[in-house]
Write a structure and sequence with these properties.
2 copies of one chain form a homodimer.
Chain A lengths: L2 H11 L3 E5 L16 H13 L5 E4 L2 H4 L2 H17 L5 E8 L3 H12 L1 H4 L5 E4 L5 H8 L5 E7 L5 H4 L7 H5 L13 H9 L9 E5 L4 H10 L4 E4 L9 H8 L6 E5 L1 H4 L7 H22 L4
Parallel strand pairs in A: 1-2, 1-8, 2-3, 3-4, 4-5, 5-6, 6-7, 7-8
Helix pairs in contact in A: 2-4, 2-14, 5-7, 11-12, 12-14
Chain lengths: ~300, ~300
């Protein structure tokens, strides 16, 4: 999917909601366990109930592969089902892969080459620790996207993502000039360096956690056109309004993810209806922010 | 597997060889394609031919999941086959996973909980970009191991892994004392910080690439007892002798991986025999280094 196509979906649905399919067989409603593939059945009903309010679906691969072969079957059925629908939506494999070049190539085949793997996603999340080789092989697929972890929403993000190569203040006190590049925190260096690898606004998004809204406005200034995938609204405590105010650009530029808040809204027969209500609720808030920011 | 058990295998086999099962269906000998599961058949014959010289096997998960459900079937059969053998070996899922806590928990189930996934590895490689949450859930499994990416063997390792938070020389010229912690490069911070997460020499190894042998001796000084998983000997250009000299400790402390050099030694009917010869060759060199370093 191209950036323009994604933007069109956002305008049509008046939403920038991504529904995270973190579908855990131990958490889905018990009555589904009698189905042949309970996780797929769960996903299918969630998708049917939420698709009017949703621009993207993001299966979290861990929840599938933890069930081994069966889990991969549920994943394959889920992505095929989404791709078979009349309403086009953006699909993200939340896999956080990253390895040396020849291995990243295999990961790209996993998520982008249905002839090889049976899966056909629009985008995959990638961890940048191993640098350029982790990202480049994904860029070779036309109209596919890499979503690079920059500033994540979790507690552990403070361990390394804020590391700065120098302490400019201390140095500049003594009249030592510090290069702009050297002032950047690790997550900012990840974003800047990716531009040297062939990443651009048509093939690359960045993960910026909703719990880091204090950094979001600054990041938007430096990357005015890229889409950001924003997890952490809801269960993790981020605020949708703050994210929209700090991060939205003229083509929206945001995909805000909600997983648990939607898919586990109820554990009864009505779980899909409740999920639809939660998604509609978020969509209506998002519509407001899209108007405020003149995206609509 | 405990550290002592691994050490016993190393002593018995006089080897610290890890064979990387980067088994690519497009690269295995063509005559195997008539088998029902060509990749498993390939792995089985490689394992049978190399196990006398090998202390660990490391399937590279990308090469399996790129074939979707079928690939996961090959992976499951492979690990079950290894675990069924009389000769015990250490098994590593080279997956480079890493995510927020509730997701990392699922990844731990994937590789450590056979009731959930069908897979039962001794260890899994983990990417540290997202910090503590990426690692902790794996530590809850007794006698299982997390292998944290520290300094990888690839070109992209220079992008971020050497980033230093301060420039001590410049600061100290002006009499500013720099805390020891602040002198550490990113990969050193990853290693040090992991100690705060519950990582120790009985549950944690680190990836240190063979192409970074200039750093290996220093790293060994700071982490005298941990095992290091060392990729990059062979196809990537690292030297076994240099790695052994710089990195070996009194209990060996090294697992040196070779993938392509062994498994693709021949693409004919004799591929397994040739793989066995290559493995034996490496084992004989390793035996020498184990004697020199008085591990044997």
């Amino acid at each position: 999917m191209t950036r323009q196509e994604l933007y069109n979906i956002i305008k049509n649905k008046r939403s920038f909601l991504c529904v995270g399919l973190d579908s855990d067989i131990n958490k889905i409603p018990k009555f589904l366990l009698k189905e042949e593939d309970p996780v797929f059945e769960f996903n299918k009903r969630i998708i049917d109930a939420t698709i009017d309010y949703t621009v993207a679906y993001k299966p979290n691969i861990a929840f599938y592969e933890s069930r081994g072969v069966k889990g991969w079957q549920s994943l394959e059925k889920t992505i095929k089902y989404i791709n078979s629908l009349d309403q086009k939506v953006f699909t993200i494999a939340d896999a956080k892969r990253g390895d040396i070049g020849n291995t990243s190539k295999q990961y790209a085949k996993t998520f982008f080459d249905p002839e090889s793997s049976g899966l056909d996603f629009d985008a995959v999340t990638v961890s940048p620790y191993m640098g350029s080789d982790s990202v480049k092989p994904f860029l070779e697929f036309k109209n596919k996207w890499v979503i690079i972890l920059a500033l994540t929403s979790n507690e552990g993000s403070y361990d390394f993502q804020y590391i700065q190569p120098q302490v400019p203040a201390a140095l500049e006190r003594f009249g030592i000039k510090v290069k702009r590049e050297s002032r950047k925190k690790l997550f900012e260096q990840v974003m800047t360096k990716s531009l040297l690898w062939g990443c651009n606004e048509e093939n690359t998004m960045f993960v910026i956690g909703a719990t880091k809204v204090e950094m979001l406005a600054g990041v938007r200034l430096n990357f005015p056109n890229n889409f950001f995938l924003v997890p952490g609204v809801g269960a993790q405590g981020g605020s949708l309004q703050e994210v929209a105010e700090a991060g939205m650009n003229s083509k929206c530029g945001l995909l805000v993810n909600s997983s648990r808040g939607i898919i586990y809204a109820s554990d009864k027969e009505d779980f899909d209806i409740k999920a639809g209500e939660k998604a509609k609720d978020l969509q209506m808030q998002m519509e407001k922010f899209l108007f405020y920011s003149k995206v609509l």
